Amino acid sequence: MVSHNLLLTGIPRSGTTLTCSLLNRLPQVLALIEPMDMRALTAAGSEAERIRYITGYLAAIRQDALERGVAPAKLLVGDGTNTFATNTDGKRASSIQGDATVPHGKDLKEDFTLVVKHPNAFAALLPELVAHFRCVALVRNPLAVLASWNSLDHPLSRGHAPMAEAFDSNLAGRLRQEDDHLSRQLLLLDWYFSQFISRLPANQVLRYEDIIATSGRALSVIAEAADTLPAAADLRLQNQNVNHLYHDLEAIEKAADLLLADESNGCWQLYDQVAVHALKTALLE
């Protein structure tokens, strides 16, 4: 296991892009937003081939970062902390404008921390990844996740996560058996939480709310230097669980009721129903 490499997964809309933005404030951390060629990874036909591909990819990124001073980057609309932006019909669509190789602008040392984020692919592959790489997962209040998913122009709003399904045929089959998009969303939510809780130590499953509350210091499990983040004068993080973009109140109320009735959902291992009830009230006000 190469301790200076870390694979970042998480529930989509749980703050993984924000986390990369925060980590990139640190001088010896390079955090990349979904840079890997997923077609190449899906073409790998076995666990050994996938591990070999990821290992080689990380080595190539480190070499380019150290020798050429460059790294792959997603070109995002806005401040770089969100991969979705509001479109004309009020839904949020991808804000990714393309890929580029750009100067990283850091004086990196050989032992710099490389973080690569791929929420869905790494969530599905987590059972095989944990034996070879350091992995961390992000989660968020489950009702905030559902509210966010239903604000998107994206398969998640229909209860599908194509890249996760590409690597987990059992998940894909279970989702196909559900007719209702909210039922699929609850199944997905349970799948993410169960993947992370069953495969990772407790301190490697981070809550979005804790990252916000600590001004990013909770990310010290990824890079110890995250303890210095509050020193940044312009760092003002706000909890977005109550968000004006989550305006489909009918969907939010129905999702909340279904979630609260789903007592076996994996989310209850990290969140309690009091927090979901409170968020439901705040979102519907």
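(ticket continues) Second input and output from the same batch:
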Amino acid sequence: MVDSGGGQARIDREGNALRIVAALDGTEADVPVIDWAADQAARDGASLHLLHVLDTGMQFTPHAMLLGEAPGVAAGLEEAARVIVERGRERCTHRQPSVVVDVAIQWGSPADVLVGHARNARLLVVGSRPRGRVERAVVGSVALACVHHGSAPVVVVPMAARVSELRHVVVAVDGSPPSHRAAELALSIASGSGAEVHCVVGWSVEVVDGMVVTEPGTHAWTTVEHRYNGVAQRSLDVARSRNPEVDVTIDVRHAEPSRAVLEAADEVDADLVVLGSRGFGGFRGLLLGSVAKRVLEHATTVVAIVK
């Protein structure tokens, strides 16, 4: 069920109308999701699509029973969902009157429905409430499922995140294709907001001339840092050519990648962290997949994950 507010949005490079999809769950976590998505839609000149998924798995009742044998239950759930999305529309319109908003309600698996609605979207925005470790991992798994199976970057907005103007964007790179795309997204967002971009590369164990590099200031240490600075420069090449006006600094850190990203975000008081879902294949790819999960679990700011 989709209810459109009409109007038109900008067109992207592929000829699609620029559109941001935001998932609402009816809790207090919706507030920063709506605010961030509305602000970004205004910066992008994009339309905003608010979506509430009626998850039959969470109802512990077969979908057929809800819709067939117990139509009153289904109708009640749909009416509650309608209130959720209409309140979301009202908040968005109050915050960003220029943004075109439409709303939708759909039954199904959250990840599957979100991926479907976010096809060709600029961004898919989801929320995250303060929870225990296991619950945070579940939230991360939904976001990562959307990354792996969908085409849109996934933006996770913690309930406690500061949602205001974008001043500092941190992007993690490692030279892989996903990190190149993360750099493109980070600079594209910064271009529309006037934010500074801090490009972070983390390294922990490196070997030069057969020896593990451990001493700062040595030739081996300088060699490694120069190598990773080159990785960052190459990751930024395309993004810089498309957004030459964005102020970018490169930050090479001797730290495990997720720690490097989180520390950099804390030091610059970042408003957004952008990173790829995975890096290179094999074991390194698995490590970088875990980086995305750890950043999702521990970041207190908004995080965007790019496939």
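Agent notes: The longest strand covers residues 47-54. The chain has two domains: 2-158, 168-306. Closing as not reproducible unless the customer responds.
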